[in-house]
């Protein structure tokens, strides 16, 4: 069953590749969607199967497998806000990249957590994955804004700036809910809400503070528009470097 889940992920990665290729070669047509739908369905089947195999324990290693699916699904909605199609193509490429990484590095250091009965641990995992996805979409909008001539010519926020801020707010909300659910889970299971010697906890808090700073800079207008946009784009490195890659076994040294 584990091999079946990994095989499904391989099929999804191939379909993501052709969907990404179709969106680049035929930018004005929706042929990419014909391949994206089965890619998402196959990816979802791999996620559900891994969850089923670990139940009732918590599959902490699930996020690298779920992230391509969430990027592809939420990227469809984000892409509708960009007539040029650059956001859609960028998020499809990111879905492909994260799927390939999950295929090439299938081993991790996590074991299913024993004390996972109840709702809180699963909310911790789901909200955390949603938060990562929203942060990456926010960073994609920020990068698009940085390369936009409209922002370069004006100090007023463009539509792209509003989009990156909106996705950052959603990511911050999901990330906060994930941390809150994780603290309740830890308190019920181990009698303490925070384990400071766990690097996953500390980098999660560091990511939360990073986006607290981003929202503060945006709401107060402390920095220039372009500096705030660069800070938002930097969020992609924070999420991938601190919260995504270390969950894969070979990159644990990043923690």
Task: List the SSEs and their pairings.
Layout: H1 2-25, H2 31-54, H3 63-79, H4 86-104, H5 120-146, H6 149-153, H7 159-190, H8 199-220, H9 225-244
Helix pairs in contact: 1-2, 1-4, 2-3, 3-4, 3-5, 4-5, 5-7, 5-9, 7-8, 8-9
Structural summary, described in words:
75% of the residues lie in helices and 0% in strands. With 255 residues, the chain is an all-alpha fold. It has two domains: 1-114, Four Helix Bundle (Hemerythrin (Met), subunit A) (Up-down Bundle), CATH 1.20.120; 118-255, no CATH class. Helix 1 (2-25) packs antiparallel against helix 4 (86-104). The chain is flat and about 50 Å long. The two termini are 30 Å apart. The mean pLDDT is 84.
């Amino acid at each position: 069953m584990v091999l079946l889940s990994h095989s499904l992920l391989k099929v999804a990665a191939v379909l993501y590749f052709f969907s990404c290729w179709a969106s680049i070669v035929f930018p004005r047509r929706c042929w990419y969607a014909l391949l994206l739908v089965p890619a998402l369905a196959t990816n979802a089947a791999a996620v559900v199967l891994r969850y089923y195999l670990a139940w009732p324990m918590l599959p902490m290693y699930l996020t690298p497998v779920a992230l391509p699916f969430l990027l592809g699904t939420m990227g469809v909605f984000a892409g509708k806000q960009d007539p040029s199609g650059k956001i859609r193509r960028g998020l499809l490429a990111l879905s492909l990249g994260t799927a390939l990484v999950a295929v090439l590095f299938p081993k991790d250091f996590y074991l299913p957590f024993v004390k996972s009965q109840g709702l809180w641990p699963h909310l911790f995992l789901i909200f955390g994955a949603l938060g990562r996805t929203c942060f990456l979409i926010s960073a994609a909008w920020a990068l698009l804004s940085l390369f936009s001539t409209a922002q370069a010519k004006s100090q007023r926020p463009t539509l792209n700036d509003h989009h990156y801020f909106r996705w950052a707010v959603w990511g911050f909300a999901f990330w906060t809910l994930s941390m809150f659910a994780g603290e309740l889970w830890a308190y019920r299971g181990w009698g303490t809400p925070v384990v400071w010697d766990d690097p996953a906890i500390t980098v999660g808090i560091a990511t939360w503070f990073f986006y607290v700073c981003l929202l503060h800079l945006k709401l107060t207008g402390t920095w220039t528009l372009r500096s705030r946009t660069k800070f938002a784009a930097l969020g992609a490195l924070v999420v991938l470097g601190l919260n995504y890659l270390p969950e894969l076994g070979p990159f644990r040294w990043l923690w």
